[in-house]
Amino acid sequence: MLFSIEEAKARGLKNLTEFEAKEILKAAGIPVVKTLLARSKKEAQQFAASIGYPVAMKISSRELLHKTEAGGVSLDLNGAEEVGLAYDRMLKNIMTKYPCSTIEGVTIQPMISKGVEVVIGVTLDPQFGPMVMFGLGGIFVEILKDVSFRIVPLTEEDAYEMIYDIRGRSLLEGVRGAEPVKIEALAEILLKLSRFVEANQEIKELDINPLLADSRGSVAVDARIILK
Amino acid sequence: MQPSSIVKTIDDIFHPSSIAVVGASQEESSFGHQYLQVLVESGYQGRLYPVNPREKEILGIRVYPSLNDIPGKVDYVICCINARLVLDLLAQCARKNVRAVHLFTGKLSETGDEKAYHLEEDIKKQARDLGINLIGPNCMGIYYPGERISFNHDLCMEPGSVGAIVQSGGLAGEIVRLSALRGVRFSKVVSYGNAADLSETDFLEYFLWDNATKIILMYLEGIKNGRRFFNVLRRVTQTKPVIVLKGGRSRAGIKSVASHTASIAGSINTWQVVLRQARAIQANSLNELIDLCVAFNYLPPITGKRVGVVGGGGGKSVLAGDEYEEAGLEVAPIPDEIMQLLEKKNPRVTRWLVNPVDVSILASLNIESAEILSLMARSHYYDLLSINSSEDSLFNKDEWINFLQSNMDEGIKIHREGLKPVIAVVGNPEIGISQLENYRWRALFRLREQLIREGIAVFSSSGQAAEAIRKLVDYYSYRESKGGL
């Protein structure tokens, strides 16, 4: 059984872990990269082998909202030994820096490097309610704030328009010989997210960052959900 | 789809067979007196009942001590009394079976005072319990030339097709007056203030069903229910253009948030998102609101962007071209078939003549600007023509006036024949009374007046015209793409 909003509500959870957020998005029909939650070093190594190297490994903890800054992310791990070393290092890191945080384990997922990094999110406007955001990842969203917003519910037209609204849209259309990104897949994700948010009024904030988009489709690589 | 009950409620408010002005007084500077006087001056045909226990007669009209003393039925009450007396008045209204009250009365929630806020909440609750609809508090109420109801002195009583929903009281009259200078007439206007009961969204829904209203203007500061506003707005714009000026656009403090999306959302203006997504036409200033109102009032649903610009000499015509292009319109080159016709008159034409057509060079080419305008009007290469007044002047007085006039006359002719949409740009310098002695400004004012009488959209500059027209073209192109034109 996938983790659900109902379960989060029943347990009084507000900050969902990446693993929980991904399960919820998967249930909403949004493509999510395969992610396994390992509760021990041995399990981490087993899962990494089953997923296939290289893998990414991240700390799973409800209290840690910014995993990278906390030293809770290890990328591009090749082989069981690297996974083991990274596991020890990350756990030590977190326990030194954030001794009070509860660590549920680590998530293991395949390294995906191909595609354009996209950010999709949801936020609540005090007057107009939930809004969906679309933008390109990295500096585009953080420094240039090259994003577009739409009020939920989105029409199909809204979804396409908000994609084409961003200044960096040519990156999606393929530059320097890159194949164009499958826009339909992005639009579909935006629409699914809009429907999901409409049906789940408990969502306060939601980030899919990054979502990797290429010519075949898009897949959520990291996600976060905060409930009201 | 059927209109909701609110539409009928508001329609009744606009058609009262009798109005009581509560708080009317002999004191000419009092608002109660002014409301009564404005209704008399405007020629309101229904029965008027001033109410005041301390007066006998105002402006020759009998005054009643209370609502209850009025012999006939009262449809609509304009309340100009102190806020603390309003609850009692509502009780009287209920006994008299009054269904709608306009609260001019202010000093309520808008003051930020907690007691006043609670009093407004009590008024709202009492009105709801008694089944009375409120406009306001803290507003001017309704202006409806059709029933000769007004809230300001000297507002034009000729009805038109623009409906306005204005939160502010002062701006409501200002918008009507400024638009009237450009020849725009209104179907109905409401200033609704704090929106304790009837809100901007209710009036928006009403205007959707009001056949006389073809264009809707809104001035908004705050709204009570963003979701409903968005949904209604999105529906209305499918059939009627809604031009919105949002006051208070600067962003309030950003709350602390954890996610990326939420922190970025704090730096954007949600109103822009809402208005764009709902296909409303966004104005960024009062001047732009009026310009857009003029464009939508006079122009047909243009969906092409190619504009032929004739008039203006030298730099003025170069700048006009820049302004149109920068606004997103196309100053399309003069097509070969027109050039060939003109070359027969003067072979030098091809090298010299371009769009925008510089009238200062035409004299030496022995070509009249009217001739070019006429050809452009008959060409499918242009979607719209802009005739610009030239203030270029090596001429003497009469020559200059004739020159100015002849440039415009062809435009007027094209407009009358309906060959092509025409707009005019007539410079509107900020002048004082003393400069009216100057024949130059007088001639421009006369010209402006003549064009407005002809039903032509007149703008003060090419830049203003260009922005307004681009927004109009965008709106109608969208409607066309949805098959809704």
Commentary on this structure:
- The complex is a heterodimer of chains A (228) and B (485).
- With 228 residues, chain A is of the alpha+beta class.
- Chain A has two domains: 75 residues, 2-Layer Sandwich (Dna Ligase, domain 1), CATH 3.30.1490.20; 115 residues, 2-Layer Sandwich (D-amino Acid Aminotransferase, Chain A, domain 1).
- Chain A contains seven helices and eleven strands.
- In chain A, the strands form two sheets. In chain A, strands 1, 6, 7, 8, 9, 10 and 11 form a seven-stranded antiparallel beta sheet that branches. Chain A has a four-stranded antiparallel beta sheet with strand order 2-5-3-4, with helices on one face.
- The longest helix of chain A is centred in the middle third of the chain and has 18 residues.
- The mean pLDDT of chain A is 93.
- By secondary structure, chain B is an alpha/beta fold.
- Chain B folds into three domains: 131 residues, 3-Layer(aba) Sandwich (Rossmann fold); 158 residues, Succinyl-CoA synthetase domains (Rossmann fold, 3-Layer(aba) Sandwich), CATH 3.40.50; 175 residues, 3-Layer(aba) Sandwich (Rossmann fold).
- Chain B is 43% helix and 14% strand.
- Chain B contains 18 helices and 17 strands.
- In chain B, the strands form four sheets. Chain B has a six-stranded mixed beta sheet with strand order 8-10-9-11-12-13, sandwiched between helices.
- In chain B, helix 4 links the parallel strand 6 and strand 7.
- In chain B, helix 15 runs parallel beside helix 16.
- Chain B is elongated and about 85 Å long.
- Chain B starts with a helix and ends with a helix.
- The interface between A and B is medium-sized, with 28 and 18 residues.
